[in-house]
Amino acid sequence: MRLFFTIILMLSTAALAVLTLVQTDQADFITLFNKEKVREPGDNLYDDNLLTTAKITILTGKEQRFVFEYDHSKGLWNCTEPWQDRADGPLHIAPLILMAQTAEIQEVIDIDEVDRKTFGITKDSPRIILHNTQGDELANFAIGRTSPWKKLIEGEEEILVPTVFIRKRHKPEKEAIYLCTDSTGDIHKLLENNLERFRDHRPFALNVHDLKQVRLKRGSSEIILQHEADKAAWKITKPLELETDRKATQGFLATLSKLTAVKLHPRASVTLPDNLTNITEIGVTTFSQDEEITLQIYPAQPGAASTYATVSDRDIVFELPLISTPSIPAYLGQIPADVNQLRSRNMVKLDRKDLRGVIVRTPQTTPVIISRIPGEPYKMLDLNNAPQPIDEVVLAELFQAVSLDPVKNFVSDAATDLSAYGLDNPFLTVDLLYFEAQPTRLQLGTPASVDTIYANLKGSPIVWELDTSTLNKISRFYWDWKPKVIWNLPVIDIIGFTTQQRDKPLVSVEYDYLGDTFTAKRGEEDISHTINPNRAKYFLNQNHLLTASKRLGPNHKQAAEALKNPIFTVTITVQNYDNQAMPSDTSTYQLDIARISENGSNLFYYGKASNDPDYLRLDLDTVKKLATDIFDED
Predict the structure, then answer these.
(1) Exposed, middle or buried: residue 447 (CB in 10 Å: 0-12, 13-18, 19+)?
(2) Is the pTM of this model over 0.90?
(3) Which of 95, 181, 239, 401 has its CA 20 to 30 A from that of 273?
(4) Are strands 604-609 and 615-619 parallel, antiparallel or unpaired?
């Protein structure tokens, strides 16, 4: 996509005549454009470093004077004439200085050979004077007309850079008019309306690294955000001590930083309400300045798109936008309505490296105890109090539920009767045990005859409502925490396997790994000649590792009933070896599979392995691999 600047079609007759003469060679421009000058086409308008500018004087028509000075202590530009107010450094002063610094001369015109008015150079032309901190003049030039000619910059995207006529104010260069590039796009637009936009239209000039506290007050409700240092996390200190939602807090601070008035009004021209009851007040305090700067936002009129506001350190009335438009990125509607829009929606702030263990308890079940020593993986105490490996995915889901999942609703910040939420007798508790900090207990409850899930931290009056998806991520039974791998058998040690569908003969296969051969029987019939070796190897490679989608525990009644009459049974036999690496006995692993439903298709199946006490849930893909047809039919 190419970037084009709009070319001005209607030109003054004189300027158009000059360009026409150049294009048609109807005038002798040897003396007009090519006289020896101090500067030549291709030179910069100024060689000095103009980025050291600390004072700008702009003279507009009829010698109206504007003076801007840089405050190094605050990093801000201020207007000292004709108003005493903060100036818009980023959007107006910086582009002006950059334009002067980067202006590249395209043509040099002898002022004695032309009518300077043709190029917009008159006594009323805007004049820019730049000084450094020592008071030395860095630049002094008048701005003439914008030229219809644009400089083409070729590249991945072609860019057309506008140009403008400029006359420097000191000899010998004041005897020339320079046609220069204009990096602002339109320097006259920048200076329009008597420099109205040079007055900072933002109520706050925030340096986020210096920001210490933000206070938001609506009526009698007040929220205070604080942090102890630039890199420290923001916290809510009023109305309660609360963790913040990082994204929401950053969005709020960004809104304050970008909030820009659609118009500024002199105080005397606006009648503000005397009743301050319904105003919104935003106060900011910085590390470098203890005095709070306060923005007061007055109630809007019905149907209005903007409303008035004042700020304590400036003598001006801001008209701030209430709604968004393509040209308004920040507006008052983005300011949080209450503390719930800023507070963290997570129940626990958790750093896994600090966590020593977890205990999950439900009534009338064995507690799940997970713990570790520093630098070691988490282990679970089994029913004999022996440490066993856990399924790390289950632990990650618990961490997700308690520290990352957002709560569904904030129910109460001052709950005294926990029985109203079923939290006096919780159906689930999660104890988080730390290496150094005090343990935390998360409680989940449901009142009688109500399906709503409530939660709180023991000892806290704050109650949340949870979504069922959060509850489902907390595994409550010890078998849920066991790894889902049922067997993992080395293919090299497999010497045979069998498969049997319900009411069909047993198919048995023997495998010689070293000879890479298979033999098979269906019942007593030898069917070795029908084996497809590639399919047989696929069976071994896919099924030497068996993983369940879920453990159902050792007492799952529905699974036990269904598996009394399995639809499919598979066994795998492996050769065992003694300490001398000599063959010893063999081990056979059997898996029975049954439908969860006898009606229709099943996406999941029940399973029971001979080497594991738990009933299993197997997915359809696993069952299909176990039932792989390894034969070529005659």
Answers:
(1) middle
(2) no
(3) 239
(4) antiparallel
